[in-house]
Amino acid sequence: MNIQNIYTLAIESSCDDTSAAVLCNDKVLSNVVARQTIHEEYGGVVPELASRAHQQNIVPVVDVALKKAGITKNQLNCIAFTQGPGLMGSLLVGGSFAKSMSMALDIPLIAVNHMKAHILAHFIDEEGFDKPTFPFLALTISGGHTQIVKVNSFFDLEIIGETTDDAVGEAFDKSAKILGLPYPGGPLVDKFAQEGNPKAFPFTKPKVDGLNFSFSGLKTQILYFIQKNVAENPNFIEENKADICASIQHTIINILMDKLKLAVAETGINQIAIGGGVSANSGIRTTLKEAEKKYGWKSYIPKFEYTTDNAAMIGIVGYHNFLEQNFSDADVVSKARIEF
Ligand code: KG4
Ligand code: ZN
């Protein structure tokens, strides 16, 4: 065995994407994601359907990941998998598969926290992408979470702010639903926003103490705003779609930026790394780049394929745990909610 080259197989199945990746040290050799489209007709992820689809996808996805990486399963040094947080039925499929494979191959098993992985995805070795240096602040924005995390090292991450209700991705998706857009609506709001005036409809920002967030009030505000205007003009949404989307996105970005500014002031750290599905948002990306010039921040925006749920981010955490010999026992349990 060439110990210079550590081959990690990573499995991610926390929600509705089945993903497997193979890494050689901190480089990604393959990162395969099978998206589940079945949920679109229900307007949200149906947990039971998700776990059944994971069961169908897991074997072919792992097989393709190994083939694309050009290695055989016998070359693997360890298997990393998402322990949580996520949907229990979905987590169990990936977890059981990872356990069986690590037992069959007699190689270490490494349980990974999905939220930490969204942050540590920045340490994947990728041409053209800088890695942050410790300590830095991470803004994790996804369909399930909104957190500001102080990252002191690979293994010392501290949540300093989080949402008290909806996640920012939910704010995007629920707003999109009110506008009659299909699930998940976040990318569509982003698309329409690019053609609209962000100041067309001023929505008020919630008042939340400290570094925490709240998005449920904004959702209600948008709902009432749309109901009132559609009552006066049934074509209101169609006629103003771009401006509505731009105004919603502008408000959400302002909420995030206010808290980031506060976090920078409180910690004295001005390196900001974003992660999670919502970091694909073009408005957030532009605003963070502008903040580099405006406030002297350094921002880190991951490669697009590592922002949404993917196994490569689980693999990079697995690799760093392998180096420290931090292994999990075979009786490690999947957890829908998990301590950070
Ligand atoms: O991290 P992710 O793939 O899954 C988890 O929630 O863990 O994030 C999915 C979320 C969804 O809410 C989706 O609407 C949102 O990310 N999203 C976006 C964009 N792309 C994905 N929201 C706004 N703008 C986007 N371009
Ligand atoms: Zn995620």
TrEMBL record:
Binding residues for Fe cation, per the UniProt record? 114, 118, 309
The UniProt GO MF terms for this protein read: iron ion binding; tRNA N(6)-L-threonylcarbamoyladenine synthase activity
Sorted alphabetically, the Gene Ontology cellular component annotations on this record are:
cytoplasm
Its UniProt entry gives the catalysed reaction(s) as: L-threonylcarbamoyladenylate + adenosine(37) in tRNA = N(6)-L-threonylcarbamoyladenosine(37) in tRNA + AMP + H(+)
Pfam family, any one = TsaD
**Which residues bind substrate per the record?**
140-144, 173, 186, 190, 281
Domain Gcp-like spans what residues? Answer: 27-315
Look up the EC number in the record and give it.
Answer: 2.3.1.234
* Transmembrane segments annotated in the record for this chain: none
Keywords of the record: Acyltransferase, Cytoplasm, Iron, Metal-binding, Transferase, tRNA processing
Q: Highest taxon of the source?
A: Bacteria
GO biological process terms, semicolon-separated? tRNA threonylcarbamoyladenosine modification
Instruction: Please give the Gene3D superfamilies that the UniProt record associates with this protein.
Output: 3.30.420.40
Cofactor binding remark: Binds 1 Fe(2+) ion per subunit.
- Cofactor(s) needed by this chain: Fe(2+)
UniProt subcellular location: Cytoplasm
Top-level enzyme category: transferase
**NCBIfam families tied to this protein:** gcp_kae1, T6A_TsaD_YgjD
Give the protein's biological function: Required for the formation of a threonylcarbamoyl group on adenosine at position 37 (t(6)A37) in tRNAs that read codons beginning with adenine. Is involved in the transfer of the threonylcarbamoyl moiety of threonylcarbamoyl-AMP (TC-AMP) to the N6 group of A37, together with TsaE and TsaB. TsaD likely plays a direct catalytic role in this reaction.
Q: Which family does it belong to?
A: Belongs to the KAE1 / TsaD family.
Q: What is this protein called?
A: tRNA N6-adenosine threonylcarbamoyltransferase
